[in-house]
């Protein structure tokens, strides 16, 4: 509840989120690398000095996006009772939907992760940020999501249901989830295709139980 949070903390969280939303609004027609820090601050009407109080560098906005986007998807998955492949498909289809709105976001994120050579840790959010970003879902919003744990949960659910490809170990299935999440999207881009969902479905076949010949 806002009433439980000091006004000063709410103001700080509002400024941080405003900078983030300003960056998002500028990515509808360009890659993240083409979005200048000065332009973000100008659109948000917040100084560069204040920007660096919240983000050490511009690229942290991408991880902030990933934290918020993934948390929203988890809230949706839980609210709709999705499990296993159904929950994983929900994530993938939301990537495709996001791409229609901001075509530069996913390529920018993949490029950034490739440069980091690792899956980044999701940032912790203050209670004020959680309240502003996830009203009514503060408990879920306060938990930093972990993609590995999430994919492992989905694959365990399918394994227990007997729908996971029996030729795969659980760890291999999780690795394929990452390959699908990032790789299938890139493959669709290489084919210059807007039918990202179709590429996801093709790759999802690798995880599903094979029919006996």
TrEMBL record:
Record feature DNA-binding region, as residue ranges: 36-55
Signal peptide from the UniProt entry: none
Molecular function GO terms recorded: DNA binding
Cross-referenced SUPFAM superfamilies: Homeodomain-like
Residue ranges occupied by any HTH tetR-type domain in the UniProt entry: 13-73
Alphabetic keyword roster: DNA-binding
Pfam families to which the protein is assigned, alphabetical: TetR_N
Cell membrane keyword on record: no
Record's protein name: Transcriptional regulator
């Amino acid at each position: 509840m806002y009433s439980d949070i000091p006004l000063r903390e709410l103001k700080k969280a509002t400024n941080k989120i405003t900078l983030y939303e300003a960056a998002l609004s500028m990515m509808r027609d360009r890659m993240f690398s083409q979005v200048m820090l000065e332009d973000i601050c100008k659109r948000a009407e917040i100084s560069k000095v204040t920007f660096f109080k919240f983000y050490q560098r511009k690229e942290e906005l991408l991880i902030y996006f990933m934290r918020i986007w993934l948390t929203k998807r988890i809230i949706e998955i839980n609210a709709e009772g999705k499990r296993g492949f159904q929950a994983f498909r929900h994530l993938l289809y939301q990537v495709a939907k996001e791409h229609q709105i901001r075509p530069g976001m996913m390529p920018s994120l993949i490029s950034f992760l490739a440069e980091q050579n690792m899956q980044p840790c999701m940032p912790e959010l203050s209670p004020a940020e959680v309240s502003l970003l996830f009203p009514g879902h503060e408990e879920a919003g306060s938990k930093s999501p972990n993609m590995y744990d999430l994919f492992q949960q989905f694959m365990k659910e399918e394994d227990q249901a007997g729908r996971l490809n029996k030729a795969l170990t659980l760890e291999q299935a999780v690795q394929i989830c990452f390959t699908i999440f990032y790789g299938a999207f890139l493959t669709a881009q290489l084919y210059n295709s807007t039918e990202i969902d179709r590429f996801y479905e093709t790759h999802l076949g690798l995880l599903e139980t094979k029919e006996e010949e």
